[in-house]
Amino acid sequence: MSTQTPILAADKLSVRYGSFLALSDVTLSIKPNTIHSVIGPNGAGKTTLFHALTGRVRASSGRITLDGRDITHVSDDKRVPLGIARSFQVTSLFQNLNVRENLRLAAQGRTPLQALAPWRGVNPRDNALAVADEVMERLELTHVSDRAAGELSHGQQRRLEVGMAVAAKPRLILLDEPTSGMGIDDVEAMKALIRDLGRDHTVLFIEHNMSIVMNISDTVTVMRAGRVLVEGPPAVVRDDPEVRRAYLGNMITGDIA
Amino acid sequence: MNRASLHFLLAALIAIALPLFMRSGTLASEVLIFAMAAAACNLLLGYTGLLSFGQGIFFGLGSYAAGLTLLHTSLPLALALVLSAITGAVVATGVGWLSIRRQGVYFVMLTLAFSQFFYFLAYTFKDITGGDNGLLNIPRPAIGPFSLGDSWTYYGFVAVLFLLLFAALQRVASSTFGRTLLAVRDNEERARAIGFPVRDFKITAFAISGAVTGLAGALHALLIGVAPLSNIEYHMSESILIMTIIGGTGNLFASVLGAGFYVIVSDLLSSIWPRWLLLLGGLLIVVALFMQKGLWGLLERLVEALPMGRKSSTKSSIEAPIQPESQGRGI
């Protein structure tokens, strides 16, 4: 957490949908091995920022660098082997495939061209399978490994959603509202999981639950209307008068949207 | 025994049983030829979620490629077949490459447009394709020491190729490639997000499907001695799709059932009633409404109803991934 070069940096990043500017001159830098959260009211551009960083949406202007290398024009699937993986706000799994197969595919995504060979079978000692088992263990999904993803409970699906990102063995993991729609017990487990992931990954996550954000983040970025409002350690952000006035006030006292 | 070997065994049984129960070697060969085409179609529809109306293009071009090779050159039969498969693969790559730029209905419309385009191309270049009359008098040379003149000998040749191709397609379906196709079918967006270049996978699926369909088209032209214009017509695409859907899209063997059913029932009905297609339409409606897993689904239910069959029909979600609820998702 010193003054290392950032693992991921966005420089004056803008995304325009038609005449609507969803992201406007966002400059962000994620330090390696930190937990970095992005908060802000709905429509602040948080998910658009994720889409741009993972390459799902093309930046209209600005630059994205990974370890100093310009990846602005690298397509989303090609960013995975570079070490970026994400989870989605709205659960997006392979509903008809079982849990192990979901994770095996996610692990295989690191070396996708190997899977393009139509004659190659799935070797039982396959590396991707080993990764899948390891991730299931970590996410406590081993007992449902043979169930179709679509049959899991909501909490399990959310965990698998995060697991899909973990299985890619990324260095930078982006989690889009990992606790979305979760019950209280599951939220605590997810908080522990994100903190745990922070030990061996750089984590960037969007979250509405302030208790998680303020507890486990090293850095918090507050966004509003497509711009970065404030950035800093949780304590600083919490007490920032502009943040309190603009948005946070009621949320910090526990009134969570 | 796992599911794949069971299905292969069933396919082999069908190939052996057809001569025992059928009087016409031509009709029996037709069953297996269309079984290949339907299985190839299933790779796109059932495994990748692509409803392609372009299968007739590859079938028809396969017929022409084999016909032209055998009529105008002295190349051996095996090479003519290889050329048809290559033609099917190359054209399918092109058609696929352009069509998958759009999704859903627009994808389907593009394949339909290509189907019409190639039909009129074949119709227009009468000097090469014979136009309306088709490419006539295609010889059926011997393969090595075996003369294929007799319709049942030819059936034997087709049956061997059918089983080889069926095993190859099974291999493709169970490979990491095939399993990634299932993932694409299920959730294309996530497949891309976890790093798969989805377009490359779809194009490869098209190429494989095109190769097998082209080869089936060639075998068909050799069977009847003609490469008719109807082999490249939109109606051919439709028939192949109907066979695939009637059989069921969950696994490759279902397509063999679908093709067998379609070919045999068409033959029976057409001899008693000229408007038999009407009945087939009715059947398609029944399948769409009540048995979305097709004939295979029906068979599965029958086997499950037997007290003995329960154990063998346990499904793994990898090999039987397509639930009826998700039918049509990717279409």
UniProtKB/TrEMBL annotation, chain A:
The yes or no answer to whether the keyword rRNA-binding is present is no
Pfam families from the UniProt entry? ABC_tran (PF00005), BCA_ABC_TP_C (PF12399)
Keyword list, A-Z:
ATP-binding, Nucleotide-binding, Transport
Every ABC transporter domain range: 8-250
Question: In its keyword annotation, does this UniProt entry include Nucleotide-binding?
Answer: yes
Signal sequence, start to end? none
Q: Name one GO molecular function term.
A: ATP binding
**InterPro entries in alphabetical order:** AAA+_ATPase, ABC_AA/LPS_Transport, ABC_transporter-like_ATP-bd, ABC_transporter-like_CS, BCA_ABC_TP_C, P-loop_NTPase
Q: Which family does it belong to?
A: Belongs to the ABC transporter superfamily.
- Name the record gives this protein: ABC transporter ATP-binding protein
Organism of this sequence? Microvirga arabica
